[in-house]
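Class, carefully examine what follows:
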Amino acid sequence: MNFSSKSMLNPIVFIGLISLVLLGVGCNDGPKKVLDDSPTKGVIHISVDESFKPVIDEHIKMYESSFPDTKIIASYKPEADCFRDLINDTATRMVIVTRGLNENEEQYFKSSMNYVPSWNDVASDAITILVNKKSSDTLFTLEQLRLQLSGKQKTDAIFVFDGMNATSTVRFAVDSILKGGKFDTAVVKAVKSSREVMDYVATHEHAIGFVGISWIGNPEDTAQVNMLKKIKMAYVRCDICPDSAYVKPTQLGILNHRYALVRGLYYILKENYEGLGSGFTNFLQYERGQLIFRRAYLGARMGFAVRNVIIREKLQKD
């Protein structure tokens, strides 16, 4: 009888011990996530608007060289696809696009993840109008572009975009030039990328292309300088200027909005701890990252003061 009672107690004791263990776990705050990345180590995936590939490539190159234990894997694609990745792809930690989150998107993330991704603008970009080197049509007004893009004014030109939908450049043209109107598809051509826009303009005398300034505005980039032997940047009339001047997309024109086709560059970070994404966004916002934007001839957000200094040490003569 005693043997039988002991045999019955063993499983009961075992179950009791398991219950105590589970109870102890339940009283804790829950399992802690083991973080496998930090601002100085780890691997993350980001999606980037293709318009910004040249300048973001430079940022990633510099960040990874500064922190050799990091790897930022960037996928360049249309802006709408970046937002789809942000919402649907758990592997996508961050996107770099031309707008922040709207109220509905913030509410979605708050209800689905219990926090809203952080976002902010880090630079100003310009949509550059490109024409063939042989073209004499280098002066545009927003009204002229609106009429021609919508088919209300006859033109021999073919307007070339990096896609007929889903891209930030197309969205900007619809919002800021057409004011919500529609393209005349008889005069608008879609290609797959900003690079293809430039190639098309370079080989078609009557083509007019639209690309982000980082693809063509850097005079220190050999490839861009060579491309400017085949195409040229057009001028857009400044409607806020007293003299109605025609302005090219220079850094100064971008910062003071004398150039009419200016848009923002934003990061949206889906990370609620100090990980690699946080480190990279800090890099974009502060001095070293801002210097890269400035060198790429975008409008940097951080101001850089010029100060007079006195050098007391005498220079040695050869």
